[in-house]
Design brief:
This is Ribosome biogenesis GTPase A. The protein is an alpha/beta fold. 43% of the residues lie in helices and 14% in strands. The chain has helices at residues 8-20, 44-48, 65-77, 93-103, 105-113, 133-141, 183-192, 202-216, 218-225, 234-244, 256-268, 280-286; strands at 3-4, 26-32, 53-58, 81-85, 121-126, 159-164, 167-171, 179-180. Strand 6 (159-164) and strand 7 (167-171) form a beta hairpin. The longest helix is centred in the last third of the chain and has 15 residues, at 202-216. The radius of gyration is 21 Å and the shape is elongated.
Length: 287
C-alpha cells in the first residue's frame, strides 16, 4: 500500500516547524493512544533534534487500559513523559500543563537565579491531521481560537497563542510524511480517520479492520453483531455482519461499502469498546 498524500500546506508546515523551532522551549507531540506508532510522523524526531518533548496520548479513553499503561512505561524508559488526554473533554490537560512546567523547571529556575524576569514557556504542539491537536489547543485556551473539524487537514496557518501568563503555544497544521509505504501503518491511519476515507477503497479498509479486531478479541465482533465467526474468513465475516445489519442491495447482494462505514464508525466512536491496535511489542517485532 503506497499512499502518496502530501498537499502543499503540509510541505509548508514542515518548513514552518524548522523555521520556528529555535524560538520554542519544548514540544508536545500529540499521538493517537490507539496507534502511537502509526500516528507518529517518522520525520518529526529528526526535525526536533534534542529539543525537550512530551507525548500527549490523545483519545486514551478509546484505548485498551492495559496497553495504554504499557505505552506510558515504554516512553518513560526512553526518558519521555507520556500523558493520557482527551482533547474533547479536557481530561488530562491540566496534568499535561503541569508536566510542561515540570520539564522546563530548570530553565525557569535559571532565569530566576540570574535575577531576570522569567518569560512564558514557549511550547510547540505538533501532530498528524485529525489526531486532536487543534481540539487540545482549544481546551488549553478555553475558546475556539484554532479552527477544527472532523476531516483531516482542516487547520491552517501559523498561530502563537497565549494561554496563561507563563505559557505560550505555537500552533502548526497537521503534517503527514510524503509517502506511506508500510501497509499496516496506512491501514491504521485509515481506521482512525487520519487519512480521508475517499483516498482508500473503503470496503477493503472495513474488511481489514474486521480482521484486525478478530485477531485482538473475536468476542468483540461476535457479541456486537450477534454473529458466529467459526472458521469464516474476513470477507465471510463482513458478509455476515452485512446480512445481520440489513446492508443489502438488489438481488440480496451485500452492500460492502455500507458495512465498512458501520464498522469504521463504531470503532472510531468507541462503540466496539476500548481497542488498541498497536502495543510496544509491535516495535520490537518490526526491529
Amino acid at each position: 500500500m503506497n499512499i502518496n498524500w502530501y498537499p502543499g500546506h503540509m510541505k509548508k508546515t514542515r518548513e514552518l516547524i524548522q523555521e520556528n523551532l529555535k524560538m520554542v522551549d519544548i514540544v508536545v507531540e500529540v499521538l493517537d493512544a490507539r496507534i502511537p506508532v502509526s500516528s507518529k510522523n517518522p520525520s518529526i524526531d529528526d526535525l526536533l533534534e534534542n529539543k525537550p518533548k512530551i507525548v500527549a496520548l490523545n483519545k486514551f479513553d478509546l484505548a485498551n487500559e492495559k496497553t495504554l499503561e504499557e505505552w506510558i512505561r515504554y516512553y518513560k524508559n526512553l526518558g519521555i513523559s507520556a500523558i493520557p488526554i482527551n482533547s474533547l473533554t479536557g481530561v488530562g490537560i491540566n496534568r499535561l500543563v503541569h508536566e510542561i512546567r515540570f520539564v522546563m523547571r530548570e530553565k525557569i529556575e535559571k532565569f530566576e537565579k540570574q535575577g531576570r524576569k522569567a518569560r512564558a514557556v514557549r511550547a510547540m504542539i505538533i501532530g498528524i491531521p485529525n489526531v486532536g491537536k487543534s481540539s487540545l489547543i482549544n481546551k488549553l485556551v478555553g475558546k475556539k481560537s484554532a479552527k477544527t473539524g472532523n476531516r483531516p487537514g482542516v487547520t491552517r496557518g501559523k498561530q502563537w497563542i497565549r494561554i496563561r501568563k507563563d505559557l505560550e503555544l505555537f500552533d502548526t497544521p497537521g503534517i503527514l510524511w510524503p509517502k506511506i509505504e508500510n501497509k499496516k501503518v496506512g491501514l491504521n491511519l485509515a481506521y482512525t480517520g487520519a487519512i480521508k476515507d475517499e483516498i482508500l477503497p473503503l470496503e477493503e479498509v472495513g474488511m481489514y479492520l474486521i480482521e484486525k479486531i478478530i485477531t485482538i478479541n473475536p468476542e468483540i465482533i461476535t457479541s456486537r453483531y450477534n454473529i458466529e465467526i467459526d472458521d469464516k474468513d474476513r470477507l465471510e465475516v463482513m458478509e455476515a455482519i452485512g446480512r445481520r445489519r440489513g446492508c443489502l442491495m438488489s438481488k440480496n447482494q451485500i452492500d460492502y461499502t455500507k458495512v465498512a462505514k458501520i464498522v469504521l464508525d463504531e470503532f472510531r466512536k468507541g462503540v466496539l469498546g476500548k481497542l488498541s491496535l498497536e502495543t510496544p511489542d509491535d516495535i520490537k517485532k518490526d526491529d
